[in-house]
Amino acid sequence: MTKRTSAKYKIDRRMGENIWGRAKSPVNRREYGPGQHGQRRKGKMSDFGTQLRAKQKLKGYYGDLTEKQFRRIYAEAERVKGDTGENLVGLLERRLDALVYRAKFVPTVFAARQFVNHGHVMVNGKKVNIPSYRLKEGDVVEVREKSKQMALVLEAVQSPERDVPDYLDVDHNKMVATFVRTPKLGDVPYAVQMEPNLVVEFYAKN
Fold it and tell me: Which residue numbers delimit the Small ribosomal subunit protein uS4 N-terminal domain (predicted)?
């Protein structure tokens, strides 16, 4: 198991939930945290603990973003008119690596970040290798020609684990995805319940 894969499953175990809905998650076998004291950690959480957990889960879902990265996105969500929690989800889903994952061009969000970093993706006909690149409605994302037959890509496209959400228009024959619209929380196919409202409460108090 690679270091990155190990870290990914550690997030699942820390949260006690299969946050990406993957068949190989260790949480499918045991629902407690990592380490020798993992089984003792269950119990009623404080409001702070519940809010912190909601933040860690959402942050972890998008490839375990750093606190600095996540806080910056949250600050932007707070500045934009409208519901801060909904804005936060919309901004996270507009990341290029999030679209590459949602479009099923790769099997995991961690693979999506690496895939973009290595220059396998174009946006509106130009190579972009920045995972956090912010997409706009109507942007067209395409897997580069030389990358379309990679085993990683073919495996992801054929996987029955996930469906493509309707805010993307995806053609897997051409390996092209259009970002149709910015989604609301209810549009995003999270495998577990995400609670951005608790993230807002967390940052309001800390």
Answer: 3-93
